[in-house]
# Entry
Amino acid sequence: MSRVHAGTGPGGHRARKRFGQNFLHDEHVIQRIIDALAPAAGETIIEIGPGRGALTRHLVDSGADLQAIELDRDLAGYLQSLYHHNPHFTLHQGDVLKFDFSRLATTPDSLRVIGNLPYNISTPCLFHLLTYRHLIRDMLFMLQREVVDRMAAAPGDKAYGRLSVMLQYHCRIEPLFEVPPGAFSPPPKVTSAIVRLVPLQAPREPALDEALFASVVRHAFSQRRKTLKNGLRDLISTETTLDWPVDPGQRPERLDVRDFVRISNALARQRDTTDITTANDQQAR
# Structure
């Protein structure tokens, strides 16, 4: 989606399509975003895609320790020229999908993240950030409204899918407000929305094996028109009958997050039982 920007870019910098740049220029929207985050002195705030710095100037003025991650070399150089004397500002020029956020955290729940995620990397970026969720207090993003709808969707909704389940397992999702295309230059072809994500200290119902849970969700929604039994066929041992905690004849879009946890936990127990049985058989020989 967008790199934030007020007015024309540095040296006539124009939005670069390959970076998904649409520059925010609406001061009312900018202030609403800052008010929603409410940055405070002493906090560590990470800004993803600061671009021309429309949010950056407010974040630096708050007294927070601002860590900005910008891919565009020209915009990174421009920001560095503006803020290199400011002790509260640090610039990291590079790809957020490869960034190690643990470098910036001193304690759990110590990071706050804000940014406009480019549409073409929004989902990979969200999943990348989830791997550091124990370090993050909250996240505030501008995304395509369709993506926010998917994040917050409930079972039975058309937008409900893998993104909904995985994010809701790890976070509380709070859609805040919409941003119209006219707030950007150039205006995108879609409406945007602001959303807050607050990582949960612990899942409401924890998975015994989170990697297996993620695999169950991925398999189920990769063939969402199939029943659970057929969609998860590759994950279920043919040697053992699974004690299904839900009706296997249902389709995945009808199940809530806890249902997927219960399925993955049943699979984990089946796997452990099979491993124990196999080990005992080998010892008996």
